[in-house]
Amino acid sequence: MSRALTHAEARLAELVATARYHRERLALYRARAYGPRLTTGRRMRELELASRAADERLRRGRRAASS
To answer: Does some domain include residue 60?
Structure first.
C-alpha cells in the first residue's frame, strides 16, 4: 500500500523532475552541437540558464525540506 505524498514531498519531487528535464535538454543540445545540425550560442545560453535556475530551485527546496 502506498501512502500519499505530503505537499512538501510532492513539491520536492516536482523540483527534482524539473531539474532533470532541464539538465537533459542541455545535454541533448550540447550533443547536437557536435553534429552537423545547426545550433546557436544564444539557445545554448538559454538552456544553460534554465538548467542553473532549476538546479538552484531544487537546492532551495531541499534546504527548506530539511529545516
So the answer is: yes
pTM here is 0.86
What domain range is 49 assigned to?
A: 7-66
**In total, how many domains does the chain have?**
1
pLDDT in tens, the chain (67 residues): 567 779 889 999 999 999 999 999 999 999 999 988 889 999 999 999 999 999 999 999 999 988 8
> Is residue 37 in some structural domain?
yes
Q: Residues near 27 by Cβ (< 8 Å), separated by ≥ 6?
A: none
